TrEMBL record:
One of its GO terms (biological process) is regulation of DNA-templated transcription. It comes from Sulfurisoma sediminicola. This is Uncharacterized protein. InterPro entries: Ribbon_hlx_hlx. SUPFAM superfamilies: Ribbon-helix-helix.
Amino acid sequence: MTKELKTETLNLRVSPGTKLALKGIAERENRSMVNALECLVSDYYKRHEVEMPLATKKGGRGARVKINQ
């Protein structure tokens, strides 16, 4: 049995308008911007009836991340 990774770091560059829009969504939903983004991605997969990939890490520290699709 494999476990999904708890957290990953993702640095994004977005336009100021996109950041402001995400901030607005987060505030409206009473979420953090990161959680709002996670929800938006999850909703995308649900709307398109596609199974969301599960990222797992096998091995020790620094092991490659495998995306199961």
